[in-house]
Amino acid sequence: MKKYEAPGVYVTELNSFPNTVVQVPTSVAVFVGYTETAIVDGKDVTGIPVRISSMSEFEARFGVGPMFRFDFSLQDGKPALDLEEASRFNLHAAMGLFFENGGHGCWILSVGCYGAGEPVLTKSVEDFGEPVWRELAKLQEPSVIVIPDAVLLSEEDYKTVSNRCLAHCTDLQNRFAIVDVFDGNRERTLDENDVISGKSGLRTLLAAEDMSFAAAYYPWLNTSHFGAGSMTFENVSAGTRKAFFEHVGQETAIQANESRKAAFDKAVKSLEGDDISEEEKCTTHKIMRGLSKRYNELLSQAVKAVSVMPPSGALAGAYAATDAREGVWKAPANLSLNSVVSPCVSISDAEQEDLNTPLDGKAVNAIRSFPERGNVVWGARTLDGNSSEWRYVNIRRTAIMLEQSIKAALDPFVFAPNTAPTWLMVKSVIENFLNGLWKQGALAGASSEDAYGVEVGLGTTMTGADVQAGCMKVVVKVSLLRPAEFIVLSFQQKVRKG
Q: Which of 16, 18, 231, 448 gives 302 a disulfide partner, CB atoms 3.0 to 4.6 angstroms apart?
């Protein structure tokens, strides 16, 4: 207490309100994968998490997407452009889907840079080693983790990275993983080669102590992220580009008059120099598009190939949008995805049954296309589908929010006197927080007593030995919202009277 010595009037302010619980962010994602570059303020940030808030900021710091490479070939006499898997990297496009579906602030951890032009980086499981998880563990804000490049690794490496991610979420218990199905663009075969239940399927590959901190979605998506003009002849590999030009030239000679053929040949000829400017390349591309139908067809084929994307980026954006619009307690399902043309595989009700309610509990949420409704997320289960407590995504994510919010609010009480006044203050702080959530509709119950309860004190949650040991035990009970996953509509004929 301050000692007063000089006569006068002294003003002091007394706190009328206790400390409050602040809800932690629920929709901040962290993306892990490969980028073109990783430079922030002239410093290499490879392996260091960086926060961004827009796609333009991402590209300013981490560059643009990879230079996809295609090999031209004739398959049974039909021309084709086959994507070189070494040139595929998913993170940039996943970021686009994230922001297009409602995402906002997020973190980026680049595990390596593929650079501009010809890719020189080889994807490896070592890029996702222990240093990555140590850096991620330091972050307090992210509550969702996405690794869209994991599906580009080998099957065994995908298994290693995905299980590391699940273990990371289980250990920290403050974030939720969105998992992509390996080879999720393939249709199910329901045999040992099945992408979900086969010997090397998702359910065989994924194994964690607690599967409730993750959800998986199937199938991959045909997206509209890449525009029709995003591919040119430069995306054809140098080794097969000559054959590509020859084939397109033959088609042009057959379908066009001599003047158009001469213009096409001149455009191709202009590319033989070593010092061709970007402007000249652009002009040549426009000429070839105007003269050759086959050229346009092959480039459209290339755009379609790179537009097949795993859904995790879009789902992370959908999570963020749902949280902002309705709250983390709303199941992120029965919502349409933006920039999606269609799921890669069409799924019927019967086919979804095994995805949703498998014997081993590793539920996989379906993405389906419905007439007049578009492409819809049609599932809200975690990979712990057999659990009566943690079956649904929104329940696990709401529990994470409650636990982390209350945990942070109780930090000031560490080393406070372990006495009744402290217990009363702790109980009041938590109850005020839960009451606010109940009024928002986050908790189930006709009254606050039905929705939540907080217990702390000697004889209720603690014994004298606990107090002597310096332990204050708090029990929080909440009634979380469960989604109406199955709506049963019954009709009965009413007997006419009179």
A: 231
